[in-house]
Amino acid sequence: MSSEAFLALLVYAFVTSITPGPNNFMLLASGVNFGFVRTIPHMLGIGIGFLTLLLGVGFGLGAVLSAFPMLHGGLKIAGGAYLLYLAWRIGMSRSLGKDGEAQARPMTFLEAAAFQWVNPKAWVMAVTAMAVYTSPESPFLSVLLISGAFALVNLPSVSSWAGFGMVLRGFLADPVRLKWFNIGMGLLLAATLWPMLK
């Protein structure tokens, strides 16, 4: 891969990682409701989960899904249902999570990592990156370079959303503002399903 192609890949990885989508809306809400530190496992789960998805797609999973459209359809339905469940959970949250509070909790590392495998935006990002940037001359190295580029920019990009949420935490300490913020985040998260329904 040429240096120009790698730079283009980094730009693609950055833009797709930092723009709104299910992960970033959930991190914004988590930053508000639980603070930055308690959201770290969620952020790391996104990074590792997406990295494994990229490697899976790059090393053949994308071809399997193309060959078996029903499997792809089932994945979309499962992902959509889980996304709606998460949107409902965020929308119904009514208080800022405090340390030691058992009922409300941020997403765990494993939950966030597993979510990447049913996240519609993550699939589009992974399949597009592999289709556009994989070199036929060195496919194995290309997959590793693409995965490395995303690993480099993904965590800082998604972390900025949790950081912004933490900044809003003081303003949203008011229960009425927090209620409407969480409802709005839940609706935005549900709206990310729209492209999948087309």
From TrEMBL:
GO biological process, one term: cysteine export across plasma membrane
Residue ranges crossing the lipid bilayer per the database entry: 44-68, 75-91, 140-168, 180-197
Example of a GO MF term: amino acid transmembrane transporter activity
Localization (cell): Cell membrane
Record flagged with keyword RNA-binding: no
Keyword ATP-binding: no
Keywords (A to Z) from UniProt: Cell membrane, Membrane, Transmembrane, Transmembrane helix
Domain of life, source organism: Bacteria
Gene Ontology cellular component terms for the protein in this record: plasma membrane
Membrane topology: Multi-pass membrane protein
Name of the featured protein: Threonine/homoserine/homoserine lactone efflux protein
Organism: Aminobacter aganoensis
Lineage of the species this protein comes from: Bacteria, Pseudomonadati, Pseudomonadota, Alphaproteobacteria, Hyphomicrobiales
